[in-house]
Amino acid sequence: MFLQETKLTSKDTFRIHGYHVIRRDRTRGRRAETTFGGGEATLIREGTPFTVLDSRCTAPEDETTDALQVELQCPLRIKTLNVYVPPIRASSMSDTPTQHFTPDQWPHDTNAMIFGDVNGHSAAWDPLVEEDAIGEQVQEWISQRDFVVANSGAPTRQSPAPPYALSTPDITLHHSTLTNRVEWETLTALPSDHFPILVKVRVGKRKKEEKRKTKPSFKKADWALFEKIIEEKLAASPERDPVPWWTEEVDEAVRRRDELRAQAKADPAAGAAWREAAKEASLTITKARQESRRTFASGLSLRSDVGQVWSTIRAIDGRSATTRRDDATLRVGNRRTSKDSEKADAFMRVYSAVSHLPPRVREDRRVTHELTDFLRTPCTQCGHSRRGCCSPFSEAEMTEELSRLPARKAAGLDRIANEMLGAVTSPALFNLFINDITDDFPPGVSASLYADDLAIWCSDRDVSAAETKVQRALDSLEEWARRWKMVVSLEKTTSTIFTLDPAEARREAALHFQGQPVKFSPTTTFLGITLDRSLTFTGHVKTIKAKMLQRNNVLRAISGTTWGCSPSDLRSTYLAFSRACADYAAGAWMPGLSESGLRELETVQRQACRTITGCVRSTPVDALAREADLLPFSARRRQLAAVAMERHSRDLPGDPVQRILLPENRPRQRLRYDRGWARTGQEISKDAGLDDFPREPFLVVASTPPWESPPPPTVLFHTGLVRPLPQNAPAEQRRTAAEETLAGLPNPDVQAFTDGSATAGTERGGAGAVVYRSGREVKRIRAPAGRFTSSYTAELLALRETLKYIESILTDQDPALNIQLCTDSLSSLMRLREGPANQTERVADQVWLSLRRLGRRHRVDLQWVPGHAGVAGNEIADAVAREAAELPQDGTPITFAAAKSLLKRHVSREWVESTRHSRPAPATRPHLSHDYHDVVGPGRVRLADRLGLSRREGTALARLRTGHSPALQAYRHFIGAEEDDGCPTCDGGVREDAEHFLTSCPATARVRHDVFGREDPTLREVFADPCRVIEFLRRLGRL
């Protein structure tokens, strides 16, 4: 038990029965008076061995912070720190001490836990109060020491004075290796402004309760009733397994392990088989957890609930998602009970003792007689005649009273509720009902309706003129609400002025609604974006930073576990769960963000990068982003702005957003750094070369109506072969399987092989096909697929052109034919198989139009064949597609998917090129090698698990590439662990950096020759094979 602010002195006695009390009282008052507050005490239950540690946990000049360190002699040997940091208020003249707090002296061992009231706030544990200096220091210490905040986000303190604000000055920290053992929750408040906190630490493995097996009598069983009960139980069982990673493979491995253990108990000679089975079961469980983790990470998004994520992580790790324990003991007096039957008996005894008033039998009997006599006494009002005030309500009286009740959501006498609830059509009906709400608004006033939320705005050079127009709109809204008997929530209605003039930014709008002034707010949140008066988005950045810090805690929690430490999984989790908070509508607001706002977001992303890669804090920021394969926000905002511009340039003509893209409608540039999303996107698109080609518009509405969307039964998709083959099967086997599959289909009257080609899968596309009729070649089709395209689009284009040609050669006089289309694009067939109503690409929609027309009279089989396997028709189509790629591409429209991919590559190359010319690091710092930008260039980063490396090996590789590795003397000297940076095995003070260690150190020449094939390889040659680098480190004993 850890107590802070005990306010005890040497004259006070403090004892609790059954506990040892270790105290550290304050010896100096924090104010000018002789008042002594602060102090802390750690209470340890008798029978638990412990050691009080004398190591100092505060800075030498820190005279205000109280700290007490105790090590518990439990199986984990937990080292606890009880700490209290008093709030030195700069505004108070009575606070004489100076705050010298620093957490650098705190214990940071893997078995360390910190419990304290630090009076500091950070978004990582306190989303209700802005970050302060202490919170920033603690958050930085957490990131450096690989610690995790155990707080769930719940407040731990409520101010005793109005407005009784909630905050979280109390934190619980532990090393990431203890994440799966710690549970944290707040309990019912004591007479204090702080809530008590319960932290549970599992110090050992949970014992499985052995239940005695019964011996059923199968002869007496009612099997019909048994079957009925089982079916009912299965139907009522939850859909989700409480242990999400428990698969059939795990169940089989555990069953086999238990069987062999039973054999080993009877015959020790079978112990080896049991141990082998135990290892196999452990490996199977680890793989199952990893797969469950990947599945879980792939489903994370911006809308994922943080609390639910933590519950899922605990479930994957094998813990219950809640803190309830079925085996909790119950203490009644001095006796503890754990069995359910004993608990029931104890409850019965306690209830029996308090269920009588009074508890004595004779007095209880007397009170019962008195109550009986009282009930027999005539009523003083009516004498039991049930008249007057004691008479029942009449129907007229009840109707009158019901009419006086306020109208709420319950249905009245007419059985009709005043709100449309419980029907799927209610939102649509409500939108139709309020659709005319803006009809009487004055010209120049715009509005946005989203369900029951209404936003009204007006733009004008004169604030007063805009204010007048908005007031007229409010008057119209008031009249509409009165006419249709709608209630507008004035408490939720606010007004905000957006202006570039600093003087006008301080003005408050004087608007009224229903005779009441409209509350003015300097900021407002519209569709999830926090807008401030000058559109600096400072408040929005603070909100995003707080969300990302909380979600980054999930990364730190799973990065140290055996089932979730894969860098690829960590990166995917960060992208979907954390960075998605910043990506939301970022193409619109992030281009206008200042450099200081960008730094706030970059700081949070760098924390995630260090968690993903394992790099140290001193790693250069550009290299850190390259190692994690993440674009910094300075480049990503340009990418998102360009993608947003490209998307809106394809909107329908007349869309309001398209007017912004016109040069004459560009808004005035507010600041030098704020160029706006449209201007930024147009500049990037021009630099990438997109302006030279037409753009393909979006498919807004499918050509096939929804009531005709089911594909005709004569159009059949075949995505497999008669014999399943492994991916690495020889070409001859794949060709034979493809020919057998085609032979099993109806003999085709018209057969076509199609293929698509694109250089590097992204540029100069070509679509090709060869068509046969009655076994004779009749046509080779060539069509350009676009200067910027994808293989997927080229494959669909080949299908479209082939179907158009087949339609042109068939007539109404032709009988029902068998048409066979063969393609090596499995992805295009899978997408088309989803049906015409689910297509989002215009070319796929056109393919389905042809398929539906042909399917009315003919049978159409679309068959997948393996590519580059020697299938004659496929090889011809592949050659024709390559020829088509050389055709002029100027008139071919570029799809949005191809443009988006091009813009991402263009911005990424821009950023990588800019890092080459960044300012070099000082000579005293470890620096990047000259070949680093070539070794870790765009598309060359492969995270550790993709190379088959463990988390430890991947971390060592990333640190070595960046030069900030404990394996290097230069880095150890940089952090103060060594006196000089010279190579310990070389003369002349040669600096041992990554380049010297890996390419030219004489002491490692023999090992270098054995691993890399030569004694003097270049750094580019060394890092070209990361697995050899790991082998090199292992043979030298530096891993």
Automatic annotation (TrEMBL):
GO terms for molecular function: nucleic acid binding; RNA-directed DNA polymerase activity; RNA-DNA hybrid ribonuclease activity. This is RNA-directed DNA polymerase from mobile element jockey. Keywords: Nucleotidyltransferase, RNA-directed DNA polymerase, Transferase. Residues 746-886 form the RNase H type-1 domain. GO terms for cellular component: DNA polymerase complex. Residues 912-934 are annotated as: Disordered. It holds the Pfam family RNase_H. PROSITE patterns: RNASE_H_1. InterPro entries: DNA/RNA_pol_sf (IPR043502), Endo/exonu/phosph_ase_sf (IPR036691), Endo/exonuclease/phosphatase (IPR005135), RdDP_mobile_element (IPR052560), RNaseH-like_sf (IPR012337), RNaseH_domain (IPR002156), RNaseH_sf (IPR036397), RT_dom (IPR000477). PANTHER family: ENDO/EXONUCLEASE/PHOSPHATASE DOMAIN-CONTAINING PROTEIN (PTHR36688), ENDONUCLEASE_EXONUCLEASE_PHOSPHATASE DOMAIN-CONTAINING PROTEIN (PTHR36688:SF1).
